[in-house]
Amino acid sequence: MTDDRADLMLEILKRVQSDLSLMRREQTSLSTRLLAMEDHQRGIITSLQGVVTSIHGVEVDVAHLKDRVDRIEHRLGLRDTEH
Known about the structure:
It is built from one helix and no strands. By secondary structure, it is mainly α.
């Protein structure tokens, strides 16, 4: 192999190595961004679960209050016939 061919091959290999290095850095960056998005998504899901739990608690409280009002109306004779 002549020196010119060897130099050409060396330059090609250096470019390939440089491209691979750049791809590795980009992959690391994308992996980091993906992990951050997954963490954010988990936080949103946890928040939504908390909201659903709170809504359920409010629904239970409203049901209890409705039962109490119904009993009070019944005791006071205020109950409608349609009730």
